[in-house]
Amino acid sequence: MTRLLSAGPRCLLVLGICLLFIGVSWSADDEKNQSDIDKRIDASTKVLDEIMSVKDKAIPDKVMKDAKCIAVIPSMVKIAVGFGGNHGKGVATCRTASGGWSAPAPITITGGSWGLQLGGQAVDLVMVVMNQSGMDHLLSSKFKLGADASAAAGPIGRDAGADTDIKMRSEVLTYSRARGLFAGVDLNGAALTQDKDETRLLYGKFIPFAEILGGKVEPTAASRPFLSAVRKYSEESKQSSNAGSSNRGTLASN
């Protein structure tokens, strides 16, 4: 009995040390996961910057000017080789009632029969929601491209115009980049959903898509470069479009 009583404090000490190490481990995992979502937002910013920096291969000004929402998925990869599955994570932002852009919402895209380009390596994806109907589908936090929302491979070239008007009727325009090659891509069959786990990591709790993309959430510090890039390219496109309209009006009057 004496031995059991004397061993009691030692057991409690050992248990306490074990719990301490477990707590430190969980904390490290949380920090790692937080770092992962921050890195993904940073990678999304770089994808947008690199794509828009090459004018003759970029997303057209008209598309960026009229965009309701923009989603970027850096490094989408093929999973379950033999079954043709694809999986990627990224972030989306939408225009708010005030005319600005919402805090980014973490998203996941899975599936689609289109396959990955050039031998199945990872690709960067950009999706541009073009109208209110497409925006409503995105705000629902789960929809399938081609089934719930019409989608088309987006036109490229900052000044592209020949087929832009036709494709602008689609709810979502989709693009991919692999090994430096940027082009419109058919993503029909792919399902886009809110990433609830990463939403909790980014904002400290789960917040519905509609609240985040509706502009009711304050962006984190790590999100600001991404939003600055979105704002920059959508505003540049508006200015470019307005300048073009002004020049055409001047020529017509002369």
What does it look like?
The chain is of the alpha+beta class and 254 residues long. It has one domain. The termini are far apart. α1 (2-52) runs parallel beside α8. The radius of gyration is 23 Å and the shape is globular. The protein has helices at residues 2-52, 61-66, 117-120, 132-139, 164-167, 196-203, 209-213, 224-253, and strands at residues 69-79, 85-94, 105-111, 123-129, 142-144, 151-153, 172-178, 181-184, 190-194. The longest helix is centred in the first third of the chain and has 51 residues, at 2-52. Strands 1, 2, 3, 4, 5, 6, 7, 8 and 9 form a nine-stranded mixed beta sheet that branches. Helices cover 46% and strands 22% of the residues. The model is unreliable at 1-5, 11-31 and 243-254 (pLDDT under 50).
> What is the percent of helical residues?
40-55%
Structural class: alpha+beta
Unreliable sequence segments: 1-5, 11-31, 243-254
* Quantity of strands, as a count: 9
* Beta-strand proportion: 15-25%
How far apart are the first and last residues' alpha carbons, in Å? 108 Å
Provide the succession of SSEs.
HHEEEHEHEEHEEEHHH
Mean pLDDT: 77
Q: Kindly give the count of domains.
A: 1
The protein's oligomeric status is single chain
Query: What characterizes the major β-sheet?
Result: 9 strands, mixed
Number of helices: 8
General shape: globular
**Radius of gyration from the alpha-carbon trace, in angstroms:** 23 Å
